[in-house]
Design goal:
412 residues; 7-stranded parallel β-sheet; alpha/beta
Length: 412
Amino acid sequence: MEAKSRVRVLNALNHIQPDKVPFDLSGHRSSGINPQTYRRLRQYLGLPERPVKVYDIIQQIAVLDEDFLDWAGVDTIELGRGFSLADNDWKPWTLADGTDCLIPAYVDVRREGDNWLLYGGSPSRTLGIQKPGMNFFDQYYWPYLNGVPDTLSSLEQDINNQLWAISSPPNLAIIDEAAFREGAKALRASTGRAIVGLIGNSMHELPQFLCRMDNFLMLMASEPQTVHRLQDALVEIHLKNLEYYLGAVGPYIDILLMVDDLGTQMGPLLSPRMYREFLKPHHSVLCNRVKELADVKILLHCCGGIRQLLDDLIDAGFDAVNPVQISCKGMETQGLKQDFGDRLCFWGGGCDTQRILPDATPEEIRQHVLEQLEIFSPGGGYVFQQVHNIMAGISPENIVAMIDAVKDFNRN
């Protein structure tokens, strides 16, 4: 299959000016569309009515159909789209607004009173809760809420007893290595889009999912040796998972996405000094091992204002960063491109989803997107994506204005 999209994305990642600015929409779990919004968008575009599949039930992100991806000109695809292809891989569910949808059949979600509860782990317990009016699940259970245990012999099992262990396809708990490899190989043969594999490998977020965010941040300041002990054990698990993951699908993916949210609206969650102490050594080990195992680029999903950490993230081995949250302090587009654009690919920042996409007029959105593209695109090093997922309630007109602006920029 012709692979212009794949070449386009890889050129951008290699800081080579591509023929067009690559466009990512739904290539990973922080670049998608809420299923209610996606259904209305399809109706607005006059695309055929189809069952809406929600592959990430925690954030409630839709599988985008091939006809929509073609219309939008999307250059990326998540590895998960090569799995859960049979009708019996899905089961019916109902979204918060009453929209019928399909979710992965292995997801254990139960209605209890006014709430939906997500079950998982061993033994099975409530890991997440969706209360009335919510369009996502909140974490409900933290294995280390009362402290990090003295022995971490059960860490792998404990990791599976928190909300984000509930997998989107492919669910590696229910398919073997051969099926994992074959699904990736088949997807590679079927698409010219750049394939993004999701592995996580979090060194900062996962301890928060175990301890709860406030507890873990306090531990970093009050009990650094406990944090080091937890992270040392965690990185060994991540390295083992890398061996398995890239051993199976490394030849069939182009980008490996790792995750560690390090920023807030006003700046980093931790100082550069603390990043260098607690995270950078482990990030470096993981990035180096990825490069040894596969010829892939490493994309870090890292929300918030992280400008002060970018030099260290580059030095640790990350090739690109997403979602480039341009509404945060220090994340001004011109400065990011000027100071880091020759060393780091910015994957995102194309349309502010906090203030612009929900509230601006279509013409204001168009101008905003064109301005972002003018700054970010020269010399490669840029993949267009809106900042994080498109949420519930965003009008189809505004989404189309964003996509049309990218198309028009690429035609000029």
